[in-house]
Design brief:
Blueprint: H1 3-21, H2 24-40, H3 42-49, H4 55-66, H5 72-80, H6 86-105, E1 107-114, H7 120-134, E2 137-144, E3 151-156, E4 159-164, H8 165-178
Parallel strand pairs: 1-2
Antiparallel strand pairs: 1-3, 3-4
């Protein structure tokens, strides 16, 4: 079976288990944590790939090391999963789970680049406006970018929307050059 199809099957199974316990977001966050840890820690990757450590020992060690940050479903899953290309498989499982999670929960991740810090009410207003326009619940992250003259840049899922003054000035410049 191809790696991607195995990953999709595992992701679907994880989502089904998570839905039964109402922990879809916690499982998503735990998978993201495991992937970040794999990227930055060669020791963790070696631990996951080790054939000398039993599945139950891996599961217990992951529970002890990551503690409350890793959902029990994910730590048990990591103890059970084996095979070649394990690191690549876990990365693909996380990607597939994030896609299935977004579809199931009608959810989208949004990153907003603004010129200055927003107040709590301004952030809530922006979040409400985005949810209204998109028709989805959003996970809004705000980055302050002082290099922006004004306006906002949004990354909605995989789309980038640029409503900054810099972009508008550049578009006017290009229009004037064509004339």
């Amino acid at each position: 079976m191809k790696l991607e199809s195995r990953a999709k099957n595992f992701a679907e199974a994880l989502l089904n288990v998570a839905e039964k316990s109402g922990s879809e977001k916690a499982v998503k966050d735990s998978l993201d944590l495991v992937n970040r840890t794999m990227r930055i820690s060669p020791e963790f990757r070696a631990f996951l790939l080790s054939k000398r450590i039993s599945e139950s020992q891996k599961s217990e060690a992951i529970k002890a090391a990551l503690g409350d940050k890793c959902h029990p479903v994910v730590s048990e899953f990591l103890g059970l999963i084996t095979g070649e290309n394990l690191i690549k498989l876990l990365t693909e499982i996380s990607k597939a789970y994030n896609i299935k999670f977004a579809e199931a929960m009608n959810y989208v991740s949004v990153t907003a680049h603004v010129t200055s810090e927003l107040s709590d009410s301004g952030e809530a207003e922006l979040k409400a406006s985005l949810e209204s326009v998109l028709g989805k619940s959003t996970d809004l992250k705000i980055n302050v970018d002082p290099s922006l003259i004004g306006g906002i840049k949004l990354r909605v899922g995989n789309k980038f929307l640029d409503a900054s003054i810099q972009n508008q000035l550049e578009n006017m410049r290009l229009t004037l050059l064509k004339v």
